[in-house]
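can u do me a favor
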């Protein structure tokens, strides 16, 4: 199998539906991405989002619990550790060496994957490659210095030279600018950029500094227990998206005289609750498993404010909601809805103007959300039930709505229920309480607009009377 990327070129690295965790809950779920030979990619995300773990998986150090990592079109497990190390080099955040190795000795360790015998020594060709790596990293004057006695920036350049001695196709860097002053941050990234341009080394670097990421990396992956955004700096460094992922308000733009995007805090304002709801009337969307994708895109296109959730990390609807929704109520993957998350859903429904239930399957994990929906409707919240594929119409003229029989509607509800009847009872209770079944996203948008217009008119009338 050969992996290809968007422009048809062969992918040097590819993740296919990768799931991984250190405990009973996955750290991320069903991650898929492709890396083209010669790319330079910045991996962004808050602490604990899984960036380092993703790099370890892509280096072959860890094995996916589900899914596959492909190197040059072949599963990583088929290569063997030595063959992988001949193609992928890793530069860790820090390297602790218990011996007084010189810089030259450290760089020569990069040739270890190429030694064929247990007591093998470096060949003349190995020595030439080591010297070339030293020269490329600009650390010739440090060659006879002890590695542990160098500054942080100097050690970083030595680690890059050691990786370069592996003659890798791919260079993975984990926070290469951490704990460095601005001089060494710039020198390190200038060196990495030079290796990428001149030697066509594919670079993937986890990095915290968004401004450095915008300056040096043409492609950015925003990661939060899954790929939230994958594009250039202008698309990924979007203020609303950054606020939802990092929980901080920022301004993004090009400063006077600059050529790259800059990310600045407007007033160092930190958002304590990233689940903050919009101030204007909004819709609450309950979805999951991709059932809300079309609706959420339509809401965003129509500039209708909405809150999504609760959604599990790794769910495709969760990833999309982080980009499009005004707020996202998040739960851990594979986890039932916790009391804290359920309380946020309850508070959102208490202030929403409308609830839309997408045709997501109902199981033990999300049953409580439908119970909340019933309670909210009994307290006066209008509810729309978006029909699933079993009742969606085909071959109809624009604006025409299919007539769905009660038996067909019941069959759809039964197909969605994985709770031995409890979910079905809740759906039927919603219908009996006045929930409206809508057959298309277009019909849903029209009903939302009418509802929000009525809500706004009521608000204005109340203000006038007071």
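np, heres the sequence
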């Amino acid at each position: 199998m050969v992996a290809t990327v968007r422009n048809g070129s062969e992918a040097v690295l590819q993740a296919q539906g990768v799931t991984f965790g250190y405990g009973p809950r996955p750290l991320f779920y069903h991650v898929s991405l492709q890396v083209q030979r010669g790319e330079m990619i910045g991996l962004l995300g808050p602490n604990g989002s899984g960036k380092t773990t993703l790099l370890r998986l892509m280096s072959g150090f860890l094995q996916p619990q589900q899914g596959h990592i492909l190197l040059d079109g072949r599963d990583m497990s088929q290569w063997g550790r030595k063959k992988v190390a001949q193609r992928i080099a890793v530069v860790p955040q820090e390297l602790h060496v218990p011996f007084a190795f010189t810089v030259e000795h450290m760089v020569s360790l990069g040739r270890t994957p190429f030694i064929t015998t247990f007591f093998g020594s470096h060949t003349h060709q190995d020595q030439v490659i080591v010297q070339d790596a030293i020269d490329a990293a600009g650390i010739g004057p440090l060659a006879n210095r002890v590695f542990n006695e160098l500054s942080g920036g100097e050690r970083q350049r030595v680690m890059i030279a050691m990786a370069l001695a592996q003659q890798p196709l791919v260079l993975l860097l984990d926070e290469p600018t951490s704990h460095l002053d601005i001089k060494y941050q710039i020198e390190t990234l200038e060196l990495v950029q030079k290796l990428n341009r001149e030697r066509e080394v594919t670079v993937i670097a986890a990095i915290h500094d968004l401004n450095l990421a915008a300056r040096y990396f043409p492609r950015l992956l925003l990661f939060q227990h899954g790929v939230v955004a994958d594009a250039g700096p202008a698309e990924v460094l979007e203020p609303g998206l950054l606020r939802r992922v990092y929980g901080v308000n920022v301004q993004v733009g090009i400063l006077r005289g600059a050529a790259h995007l800059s990310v600045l805090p407007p007033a160092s304002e930190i958002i304590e609750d990233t689940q903050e709801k919009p101030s204007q009337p909004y819709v609450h969307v309950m979805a999951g498993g991709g059932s809300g994708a079309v609706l959420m895109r339509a809401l965003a296109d129509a500039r209708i404010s909405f809150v999504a959730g609760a959604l599990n990390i790794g769910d495709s609807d969760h990833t999309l909601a982080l980009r499009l929704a005004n707020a996202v109520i998040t739960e851990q993957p594979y986890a039932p809805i916790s009391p804290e998350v359920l309380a946020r859903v309850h508070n959102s429904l208490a202030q929403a103007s409308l609830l839309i239930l997408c045709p997501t399957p109902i199981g033990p994990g999300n049953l409580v959300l439908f119970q909340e929906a019933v309670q909210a409707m009994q307290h006066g919240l209008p509810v729309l039930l978006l029909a699933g594929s079993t009742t969606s119409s085909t071959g109809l003229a624009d604006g025409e709505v299919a007539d769905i029989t009660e038996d067909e509607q019941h069959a759809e509800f039964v197909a969605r229920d994985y709770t031995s009847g409890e979910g079905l009872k809740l759906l039927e209770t919603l219908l009996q309480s006045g929930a409206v079944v809508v057959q298309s996203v277009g019909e849903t948008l029209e009903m939302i607009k009418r509802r929000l217009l009525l809500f706004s008119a009521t608000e204005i009338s109340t203000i006038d009377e007071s």
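The chain is about 35% helix and 20% strand. hope that helps!!
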